[in-house]
Input
Amino acid sequence: MNHLITKNISIDIETFGNRPNGLIISIGAIAFSSAPADVEAGTLFSGKPEDSFYEVLNDNALEEETRFVKDPSMIRWWKETNKVAFEKLSNLMRNSTLDSEQLVTKFIAWLKPFCDQGYNIIGNSPSFDLVIIENACKVLGIPFPVNYRAETDYRTLTDLIWTPESKPRPGPNDAHDALFDAKFQAGMFAQVMTTVYRWKALEQLAVKLPEVQEALKVGLKNSSELYAASQSGFDADGYAEDMDELKAAIQLIEASVPPVTPQ
Output
């Protein structure tokens, strides 16, 4: 299976502006993977967290920052629509010591080794999270390590499985917590990739179906012949030959059926 399934980083940011020059107030990310054996066994659903990142902007830096846009309508949206999340975030910001440059520098230092190893970067969507982070890097003179080929759109992938109405979403007390949202995206992404993998396995099975049907016929025919032989006398050579054919038929069937792992 390709590395899209096995090596990923889910990123979420919270901002005071939804344009590329918006002020980043928190960054959450989680690196997760499934070993190839897990993927082949269809157990990607759980994923395997490897490392995580979560930092927020200091509230004094928030007031003093002039290099990035603080959209009044976005600030009002936070205070009026997401009171619980904003209160939680405000408490964290009071205890933070990071200004914008320190926040972005710390995140990029965490992210770069994963980028160097070819991890995919999942954003909701990349044109929001990654574009804003890349612009911040440009303004602050920090090299941006994400190759455009590594960008993966969470929204498009989840739309393959769910309608907008049926798509699971974080609860009101968890939404807009950057680390929680990053973890939630990772779990949803794993479900999508597991489903896609199983679709591919079923597709491969459908291609092999005529071959599988023939194998079943051979197996049934051999079973009938073995039973008839047992009633009329035993032919050791014929028995061995029939058993070899039956084993080959069973192996073909087993190889054609995708593994199913209880969830």
Observations:
- Residues 155 and 163 are 11 Å apart (CA to CA).
